[in-house]
Design goal:
It is built from eleven helices and no strands. It is mainly alpha-helical.
């Protein structure tokens, strides 16, 4: 791994958390991190595989208020860097052995960054309490608060990239040698992690209320996948038998499935009356909210979204 690659990934790790806190350009997401890290490391495909897998894994993971959550973005950066630079480490193995553990450990550093940031908050409070407020000093201290956030990501990424390559190479060699069984297990686990993200997401979506759309979406996707796969296989066979046959049969584009889902969502949204009565404004004679209006416990209802 070249020094300039370590430098660029370190700078990106420091900037992505500031982007998440203020701008949110989507380059701070796991899939965005995978794209950028893949470009820097010269292997965009591996970066997107790791980034997309981590993105799917955290689909149903959120944070409210000042709560900390697993940092899948930093995990994606390190997993992409080591997967592309260490021989014998597949993207799936890198996800389960590097990306997920790093994402979990970064929770502690996120808490440390929040704690360190209170120092500048107290300085601002002190400046405001002065008889003559120094507004420029207040502005500076507010900007200084970005430093702990950036360092909480940049420092561990730099240390891992600069000094952790030897350890990762040893681990990769072991997983492809005496511990082959463990490496195979980690590969399978890394491939199934996106399903965990979907399961968490479905847990918090109003699935019971909109089960028809879930069944329809699954059925349409399955049917289209089978049809397009068979057509593609048929076209490949015809091309092999007749060299003059130049037509191209493509697979199922995921964008088409996404557009179908968007169309169904728009139709559902437009079918909702403007003056729809919700559970929040229906009160029973006793003064209690009518429990029959919304009996889907544990689900986030439309009005809450």
């Amino acid at each position: 791994m070249a020094w300039w690659q370590i430098l660029l990934l370190t700078v990106y790790a420091g900037l992505e958390i500031l982007d998440e806190l203020q701008i949110y350009s989507s380059l701070n997401t796991p899939v965005g991190a995978g794209m950028i890290a893949g470009i820097i490391m010269g292997d965009l495909q591996t970066g997107l595989i790791i980034g997309a897998s981590m993105q799917l894994m955290v689909l149903g993971v959120g944070t409210f208020g000042g709560a900390s959550k697993i940092d899948a973005t930093t995990g994606t950066v390190l997993a992409t860097a080591f997967s592309t630079s260490v021989k014998g480490m597949s993207p799936q193995t890198a996800i389960s052995s590097i990306a997920v553990p790093v994402a979990a450990i970064m929770v502690e550093l996120d808490v440390l960054a929040r704690f360190a940031n209170t120092y500048f908050s107290h300085r601002v409070d002190h400046l405001i309490d002065q008889d003559k407020i120094n507004y420029s000093a207040v502005e500076r201290n507010l900007l200084y608060g970005a430093i702990p956030w950036a360092l909480s990501r940049a420092v561990p990424v730099f240390i891992a990239l600069a000094f952790g390559r030897g350890l990762v190479q040893t681990i990769a060699k072991a997983l492809n040698g005496d511990l082959m069984w463990l490496g195979t297990g980690l590969t399978v686990a890394g491939a199934t992690l996106p399903a965990v993200g979907f399961a968490i997401l479905l847990r918090y979506l109003p699935v019971k209320k909109h089960i028809a759309y879930l069944i329809l979406g699954f059925t349409v996707t399955t049917l289209f996948s089978v049809i397009f796969s068979n057509i593609q296989a048929l076209g490949t066979g015809v091309t092999a038998a007749n060299k003059s046959f130049t037509a191209t049969f493509n697979g199922l584009p995921m964008l088409a499935i996404a557009m179908i889902g968007l169309a169904l969502a728009i139709l559902h949204y437009k079918s909702i009356p403007i003056n729809k009565v919700t559970a929040k404004n229906v009160v029973a004679p006793s003064g209690n909210v009518d429990s029959k209006i919304n009996d889907n416990k544990g689900e986030i209802t439309d009005d809450e979204l």
